[in-house]
Design brief:
Two copies of one chain form a homodimer. Chain A is built from nine helices and no strands. Chain A has two domains: 42 residues, Arc Repressor Mutant, subunit A (Orthogonal Bundle), CATH 1.10.10; 124 residues, Tetracycline Repressor, domain 2, CATH 1.10.357.10. Helix content of chain A is 68%, strand content 0%. Chain A is mainly α. At the A-B interface, helix 8 and helix 9 of A face helix 8 and helix 9 of B. Chain A binds a DNA duplex through helix 3. Chains A, B: InterPro entries: Homeodomain-like_sf, HTH-type_TetR-like_transc_reg, HTH_TetR, Tet_transcr_reg_TetR-rel_C_sf. Chains A, B: It comes from Streptomyces avidinii. Chains A, B: Pfam families: TetR_N (PF00440). Chains A, B: This is AcrR family transcriptional regulator.
Chain lengths: 183, 183
DNA sequence: CCCGAATGAGACGCCCATGTCTCATTCCTG
DNA sequence: CAGGAATGAGACATGGGCGTCTCATTCGGG
């Protein structure tokens, strides 16, 4: 029928990224379907959020695959990763803040997988001597998520130009704000 | 009487930082007062959040003052700023995510003042030649907030040691993750 | 010591989002 | 073209949090 589960999830993500308290009715309208239909496919709001979580994890698994994190230097891989993640930055921003709600109870294992891949990437960079070892891989992982989410918000609010998304994140994350004579 | 408005706000902030959906009843219990008393002092949940916003802005105004943003180099001032902001990092993390809800309607002007001060600090650093000019002051401001919030979450989740708070933020923000031969 | 103000506990009623259900309609399928 | 499945719109009951109120109790100033 007209109902495309993944498209509905994407529409829901687009709305909830901006207004995390949106009603099921608002989500349904945003997706162009009836509230009843929304409930037929997602047992409830909770199930919808879980589905969004699954979608996000799937998207980022793919993004990670496309970024070929194992090829080239870790720095190069990181650049590719940010580029691949950009289309789903809003979804990430939503899920990161939403996850604060899941207080320990049954956190989706997918996040651990993603964390592990990002963490491994930073560790590889550290072993190769390209990434500082005084900043833990765990923190760099969190910081990457945080910066992506922050930049996604900044773009939505018009404080950062959309075209600068990748540059702002990568340059700050890798090079920092301080101006150095020679890197 | 026993009711200390500011202390109640601090208790509320401590709880809401961890569980942003906490009930008015939970907030009251966390503050050690009755729900009725809480309502007597704050017209409603919305008023409570606004009061928290005011508290946060006041705290950061003071933190900014204490950091003496105009003294020394911008980089030094930034270090002092992060140090001064640390005690209120959780509150900032809460307010930053909560502010996403205030969709344009009557945003507290205090944020603009704070933004202006941080932005001016980064611009000063750029003019002095210590801060990169290819990263806009607006983005650096957002990134600072984002990193502080992210690190606060990471500390709460135990992914970053509390004692490393300032170091992780300042070093990443200023120096970036990339290891350079000489700065 | 006394009196007034503030508090805590609880009882309501209200509102809104949720989740379920029905029924007419539309759409695909065979 | 006919039948069945899926959808949309709406009605309905429910729950939970919110806001208000009352009343007994406690605290503190005079």
């Amino acid at each position: 029928m007209a109902m495309d589960r993944d498209q509905v999830l994407r529409d829901a993500a687009a709305l909830l990224s901006r207004k995390s308290t949106a009603t099921m009715d608002e989500v349904a309208r945003a997706a162009g379907i009836g509230r009843a239909t929304l409930h037929r496919h997602f047992a409830g709001r909770d199930a919808l959020v879980r589905a969004l979580e699954d979608l996000g994890i799937r998207e980022f698994e793919v993004a990670f695959d496309n970024a070929r994190l194992d090829e080239g230097t870790a720095v190069e891989a990181l650049r590719r990763l940010v580029a691949e993640a950009e289309p789903n930055a809003q979804l990430l921003a939503f899920l990161v803040t939403e996850n604060q709600l899941f207080e320990g109870d049954e956190v989706n294992e997918g996040w651990a997988r993603l964390d592990a891949r990002v963490g491994a990437l930073f560790r590889r960079g550290q072993e190769e001597g390209d990434i500082r070892i005084d900043l833990s891989a765990a923190w760099l992982t969190e910081a990457l998520y945080g910066l992506v989410g922050t930049c996604a918000w900044a773009v939505m609010d018009g404080r950062v130009a959309a075209k600068d998304f990748q540059y702002m994140i990568i340059e700050l994350l890798l090079g920092g704000a301080r101006r150095s004579v020679e890197k």
